[in-house]
Amino acid sequence: MMLQLGGKRVGIVGLGSIGSAVAKRLEAFGCTILYHSRSRKPSISYKFFSDVTNLAAESDVLVITCALTTETHHIINKEVMLALGKDGIIINVGRGALVDEEELVKCLMEEEIGGAGLDVFENEPGVPQELFHMDNVVLSHHKAVFTPESFQGVLEVVMGNLEAFFSNRPLLSPISE
Q1: Catalytic position from the list 27, 79, 102, 124
Q2: Lowest mean pLDDT among 78-82, 143-147, 169-173
Q3: Active site residue 36
Q4: Would you call 124 a catalytic residue per the annotation?
Q5: Contacts for 74 with CB less than 8 Å, ≥ 6 apart
Q6: Which of the two ends of the chain, N or C, has the fewest CB atoms closer than 10 A to its terminal CB?
Q7: What's the whole-number mean pLDDT along residues 106-111?
Q8: Looking at domain 9-141, what is its CATH homologous superfamily?
Q9: What are 64's strand-pairing partners?
């Protein structure tokens, strides 16, 4: 059975530039946006969760867009998956190691979550073989970025960062440690 996107509660883990762009698009479908980020964003009206497990418990879908750091490694663990519930869907377009892939496979096989959409994998280029045979999993393997517009956007950011660096100005997209 197909699912309707409209009206879903979508939890976004990482409300940076990518997460914000995802939220904007999902709002157009009538989704309720919830989020977890390093800190609350005062200018954002979406409901903030300081704890990812609580975010998952309130969400129908979790979209993972945050950076991979020592703090975010396996931020989506079994506890988060169980909180998301049997009908919940995980979509990871961030980094593979943000999701505990071994636990994800188990939760999918045991029907503890409803499905997954994965553009990235924990041990690339390897992908767990079990995922290939699941009807409730979509694997795109970095295809989410392969558009002429996205390459143009990357080029613009790289060029802007280079110009800023060599002019001793703040970078457009600094990476915090």
Answers
A1: 124
A2: 143-147
A3: no
A4: yes
A5: 97, 98, 99, 100
A6: N
A7: 96
A8: NAD(P)-binding Rossmann-like Domain (3.40.50.720)
A9: 13, 92
